[in-house]
Amino acid sequence: MRRVGLTVAVLCLLCPPLLAQGKFPLKYEEAGPGNDAVVQMNSPARGMNPRKPDEITGLPDGLPETAAYCQMSFGDKRIWMAALVGDAPKLYVDTDGDNDLSDETAIAGQVEGNRVKYAIADLPVSGGATVKVRCEATFRNTKGPAQVLSLRAAGCPAGKATLGGKTYAVAVIDGTFNGHYNDIIQDNPNDLSSGSADGLAIDLDQDGQFARPSPTGKAWEWTLLCKMVEVGGTYYTVRVAPDGSEIEFQKTEPKFGTLDMGGPGVDIIAMSEAGFQRVNTADGKARLPAGKYMPVTLTLTQTDDAGATWMLRQSGGEFRQFEIRPDEALAVKLGPPLLAKTDVRQSGKTVLIIYALLGQAGEQYSPGAMKDKTMLPPPAVEILDEARKVIYAGKFEYG
Q: Which of 280, 29, 275, 41 is nearest to 169 (CA)?
């Protein structure tokens, strides 16, 4: 009896770690209602040229003059494409990479409103791998050329992972379009452009769908593939099989530091080696995993004496990256007092005046303030002559 009791006790001690990590199989699924948000997370677009580029050496016989051209990146390869809209939409892709489209088979498309959705294409990439992609072209009129061509994965590997005793839907995406699923962001998260890394989605709230990234609302359920992620308050390292057949989570304990933003009312979502991190605390201080961060969104919120809530969103400026060091505090003063600044540019008789709001860290905010979730009118402007007489009065325009 003692032996049995000891065995049960040992098993009970081992169960929590087993439930908190492990390897989980993934299976490729074509894009649909369940994972459509995932494949759209990386959808690069290129403007199209109505004139044939000199690099293209051959075209299919009878290709109309309304064809438009662009190059798309697939890993370290750049592939030429020619798109046709109109009554018989087609897409030609240089699958063999010889800059010659004359030997390529047309991919049929279907017009939906002012866009054409082309059928799924299998494209060979470096190392003998292939990628399944779907292209979409937009146009102004069916008799003219396509103007923009966008690209996205035709599907992604997906499955279930049990972490901390709970089961989550997970999916990975070939964000680099190189036929592999294990490209992670390196030690510099400053590069968030399309094709910089693959992607990972986890249904954190277990509602059956992957939430799209949003400056407000619930946690982001998609991130660039990174070294580790947080699920249920626990951090896990992440490893994805190159072919996307398996994902592995292992519990880890990262080193932490502190970000001190100088007070409440600051909401930051930043990309890091630990995925997207949301910083929004009552005292403006947050404990974060050590590493480099790139702010993706920054929002200021304050309530005035009348109880109205005011909000500003960052639109640029100097606050583009920060680093948290282990067991150290980083003080960054953000927000007010704000400096109103204008940038005047003249071209001939045209004068352009750009209005901006700058915070203490050099971060720039859009002048479009929100009051109780309502956008206020653009700021007014007056131009005075030397005698302080108003010679022009008007308002700035958003955008």
A: 29
- 46 phi/psi in degrees, rounded to 5: -130, 140
Q: How far is CA 39 from the centre of its chain?
A: 11
Q: What is the dihedral of CA 237, 241, 244, 246, to 10 degrees?
A: -70
Whether the bond into 337 is cis, omega within 30 of 0:
yes
> How far is 377 from 363, CA to CA, in rounded Å?
22
194 or 279: which leads in pLDDT: 279
Higher per-residue confidence, 91 vs 191 = 91
DSSP state of 126: G
Task: Decide if 272 contacts 293 (C-beta within 8 A).
Answer: yes
Average pLDDT across the chain, whole number: 84
Query: What is the DSSP secondary-structure string of 19-64?
Result: HT-EEEE-EEEE--TTTHHHHTTS--EEE-BSS--TT--B--TT--
Q: Decide if 86 contacts 110 (C-beta within 8 A).
A: no
Which of 35, 31, 40 is CA-nearest to residue 194?
A: 40
Tally the residues of the chain.
Answer: 399
Integer Cα distance of 10 and 8 in angstroms: 5
pLDDT digits (tens, 9 = 90+) for 33-81: 666 767 777 788 899 999 999 999 999 998 888 899 999 988 778 899 9
| Type and span of the H or E element at 10 | helix 2-19
List Cα–Cα distances, 324 to 207, 238, 331, 335, in angstroms. Answer: 33, 21, 10, 20
The count of C-alpha atoms lying within 13 angstroms of the C-alpha of 65, restricted to the half-sphere facing its C-beta, is 0
Q: For CA atoms 342, 348, 349, 350, give the dihedral sign.
A: negative
Count other Cβ atoms within 10 Å, centred on residue 376. 11
pLDDT tens digits, 260-293? 988 888 989 888 889 888 888 888 899 999 998 9
Q: Are strands 256-260 and 329-331 parallel, antiparallel or unpaired?
A: parallel
Phi first, then psi, for residue 230 (nearest 5°) are -105, 130
Per-residue pLDDT tens digits for 334-370? 888 888 888 788 878 777 777 778 889 989 888 778 8
Q: What's the CA dihedral at 203, 205, 211, 216 to 10 degrees?
A: -140
Tell me the CATH number for domain 254-399.
2.60.40
- The pLDDT tens digits of the residues spanning 226-240 come to 999 999 999 999 999
